[in-house]
Design brief:
The chain is α/β, with parallel strands linked by helices. It is built from 7 helices and 10 strands. The strands form 2 sheets. A 5-stranded mixed sheet has the order 1-5-4-2-3, with helices on both faces. The chain has a 5-stranded mixed sheet with strand order 6-10-9-7-8, with helices on both faces. It starts with a strand and ends in a 5-residue tail after the last strand.
């Protein structure tokens, strides 16, 4: 049986409260510098109160749980949509020191909910070219935005981190696709494409749809609203062990209407671990 890059572990963790770094006076300086060219006002109330969570604190323990000291990673990719509260610090580099192997660290942002899928695509590319035997993707979101946005944005209800571990597995088939343009130019075409991919996996497929993605007539688990960036992946962490033990193929789908991008992940699992 041939081996291919696969998804071996998905772990999630929620957190309440705040990081003490949210009270760092440098946060105000940093955010002010970022928004000044655009004339956006600061949220002085949030800066004074101290709200939000640092992604390193949120994800480091989860990363240590996902990978043991004898499981070195070769590449770590952090993806996020809402900003960190630790000003000026590359969290991906800090997280790379939380796992064995001190992996090459990258970060990806400003791609909406498509960012999580893009990070996985990059991780799989590293594996398929032989650069990385084990790749780790860290997704994170926190609840605070310390400036007024230029247009309404959806922030998460809770701080959350998700760690996905990609390794080579016998019989695994993991594919990430991202479509835009005419293929997904309307709600109907988005639904048709999700239906097409689900049908290709067969009647036993387990389908997981992100909050807000409407696909009429499809038997699927629909993720509730509240965690726009991590919710889909937290639901996968909860359900993948059972689906894998049942040897069911899996489809995840999310559509970012602002970017016009339909992102999907299909997984045909290998033998149960």
């Amino acid at each position: 049986m041939s081996a291919a890059p696969g998804l071996t572990r998905v772990l999630t963790r929620y957190a309440d409260g705040r990081s003490e770094l949210s009270l760092d006076p440098d946060l105000r300086v940093f955010v002010a510098d970022l928004v000044r060219p655009y004339g956006l006002p600061l949220r002085e109330d949030l800066l004074a109160e101290g709200v939000g969570h640092a992604y390193e604190e949120l994800a480091a323990g989860l990363l240590a749980e996902a990978l043991g000291p004898d499981e070195p990673a070769d590449v770590l990719i952090q993806a996020f949509d809402s900003p960190d509260v630790r000003p000026g610090a590359p969290t991906s580099l800090a997280l790379s020191r939380s796992c064995a192997g001190t992996p090459t660290a990258l970060a990806l942002c400003d791609q909406g909910t498509a960012g999580a899928f893009a990070a996985l695509r990059a991780a799989l590319a590293y594996q398929r070219t032989g650069v990385a035997r084990r790749a780790v993707v860290v997704l994170a979101e926190q609840t605070a935005l310390h400036h007024r946005p230029p247009e309404p944005v959806t922030l998460p209800d809770r701080h959350c981190a998700v760690v996905l571990v990609c390794e080579t597995l016998p019989g695994e088939e993991l594919t990430v696709r991202q479509d835009s343009g005419a293929t997904v130019g309307s709600a109907e075409s988005v639904a048709e494409e999700v239906h097409r991919q689900a049908k290709a996996l067969g009647e036993e497929a387990a389908v997981l749809l992100a909050a807000g993605l409407e696909v009429p007539g499809l038997d699927a688990v629909r993720v509730p609203a509240g965690q726009p960036f991590t919710g889909l992946w937290s639901a996968l962490a909860d359900r993948l062990p059972g689906w894998r033990s049942e040897r069911r193929p899996v489809l995840l789908a999310d559509f970012d209407p602002r970017l016009g991008v339909l992102s999907t992940l299909t997984l045909r699992a290998g033998p149960p671990s």
